[in-house]
Amino acid sequence: MVLEYLEEKLGRVMFERVKQINNSKLHAFLSEVISLCDPSSVFVSTGSLEDYEYIRRRALESGEELPAMIPGHTVHFDSPLDQARARGDTFILMDEKLPFINTKPRRDGLEEVIGLLRGAMKDREMLVGFYSLGPKKSPFQVLAVQITDSYYVLHSENILYRNAYDEFVRLGEGADFLKFIHSQGVLDERGGSKNVDKRRIYIDPASETVYSVNTQYGGNSIGLKKLSLRLTMIRALREGWLAEHMFVIGVYGRNGPLYFAGAYPSASGKTSTSMIGRLIGDDIAFIRAFDGEARVVNPEIGIFGIIDGVNAKDDPLIWEVLNKPGEVIFSNVLLGKNGEVFWNGSGKDLPARGKNYLGEWWPGKKDEKGSVVPTSHPNARFTVPLFSFPNLDPRYDDPEGVAVSAIIYGVRDSANVVPLVEAFDWLHGVVTIGASMETERTTAVLGKPGELEFNPFANLDFMSINLGVYVRNHIEFGRRLRNPPKIYGVNYFLSENGKYLTDKEDKKVWLKWMACRVEEEVEAVTTPIGYLPLYSDLKKLFMDVLSKEYDVEAYKKQFTIKLDKYDEKARRILRIYSEIPETPAEVFTTLEEQLSRLRRYMQEYGPHLNPLVLQ
Ligand code: SPV
Ligand code: MN
């Protein structure tokens, strides 16, 4: 029955492609979505070069993307009201409540979103893509199917994820997969989603399906990006691994690369850090324990990065990729008359006229409220394949992953958090650094930027399980490791009188110090919050890495620990977790220990501890 229905709806060529995959769950899923969304035709991508070319071509013909000057480059605009992740419209469908997370009773949510998707693809082509998160035929592999009516979305996924049509064919009935359904909904005259007020992004863990409608922004529409993270996190908990909002990079050690994974909230230095050293991934990491060793892969094979502020001097590798021929989708940038692309902070001279996400643009243009319209949206992005980067690590697709030596948690905190600290051990790091992250909100999510918000593991936006249980999974994961990765906290944004206390390039020194610590080449100062670098080591590393003098005053300003503020923070975090009954006991004991250390030091040194007095 199902097959007959599909044959009728798909036509011979597309039906053959589906029939190659001997999987009844897939057939049922496709027929359900076809009958729900009612497309005029269906395109099933096998991931062949011809199929990829077809999607690229249709993205241009449909107007979803516009050609830019450099071959392979295109520009896409999202609706002006749909320029970032929409927290307020994103819900996990489940009947129980989860702390800090938008949940919605499953039946109500399904009814609503299915109602919005009914007939949504009338007169449109429905696109179907098959992908793997993580290297194929590896223990990390997670299969997924994307259905969308947006050529831009499928084009992005063809860049960002491994095609896995062949894996579906090979595994047949045995293929178990995540499901993503997306529709832009009705479009306005400029091609934007018209009913953004009815934007809904609903994640249904029970069926491992995500529904996304009346939205275009990649973070809301590209299923395999952050929507899948909510689902893989649940699998990770069930199977005892970690699905994280982390980059993965190789940093040069004495005997070859050491691999680090780092979780930072969006727009807080993550992509730029991932360009230092050898690149494996910039956004998401799957970490599993094999024989007592933590190993990591990047589920993605491309980057959907923030373009704001990218310039030739600070980001030479990204700059090169964005200025050479090759596949790039720019979103929400400024497109000049001759197809040149501009964005805030690019350092290029702006054109007299152009087009951005708000329409026609000229220098000094004002909106209705009289504010100057920016060149590009602060969350404007670029989408590129990893292989465009000259620093791509040769093991980026290794089916066994690479061993993780260090995990970094980065926050954006202009006032209090030191630029760099090493946790005493796994538990201390998980609890006082990862689980305790507070960070200033950025433009990557809708809402007022600048406010300090709790964002444990930089993963709160993508949390689909109870936070207490999530922390327990982390703690237990560490227990399965013979030599757990060292854990670091970093903050690139510490400021005084509105001026950053560290330079953009200083992060290279921080990474080098971590590598030295992993290889036991340097000592550290013991403080109540963890180990800090010795001034003498940093002085040497600044010279080695950046050929820069590093004076003792800079060190003192950067690394003075505001014990009183750390004390307040630990209390805030304690309060948060004490309201989550599932929180493991170690969280409280670890925070209490930190608090008593802080108190002891405060008694001896007062509220601010200058680490120079300890070395
Ligand atoms: C982020 O904001 O963390 C991103 C882009 O990586 S998004 O897909 O919007 O999540
Ligand atoms: Mn991200």
Q: Could you describe the 3D structure shown?
A:
The protein is an alpha+beta fold. The chain folds into three domains: 2-239, Phosphoenolpyruvate Carboxykinase, domain 1 (3-Layer(aba) Sandwich), CATH 3.40.449.10; 242-301 and 396-614, Alpha-Beta Complex (Phosphoenolpyruvate Carboxykinase, domain 3); 304-387, Phosphoenolpyruvate Carboxykinase, domain 2, CATH 2.170.8. The chain has 17 helices and 35 strands. The strands form eight sheets. Strands 1, 4, 5, 6, 7, 8, 9, 10 and 11 form a nine-stranded mixed β-sheet that branches. Strands 12, 13, 14, 15, 16, 17, 25, 26 and 29 form a nine-stranded mixed β-sheet that branches. Strand 16 (285-290) and strand 17 form a beta hairpin. Helix 11 crosses helix 17 (585-605). The longest helix is centred in the C-terminal third of the chain and has 21 residues, at 585-605. The protein is globular. The protein starts with a helix and ends in a 6-residue tail after the last strand. It binds sulfopyruvate (SPV) and manganese (II) ion. Sulfopyruvate binds at residues 85, 218-219, 225-226, 266, 283, 304, 444.
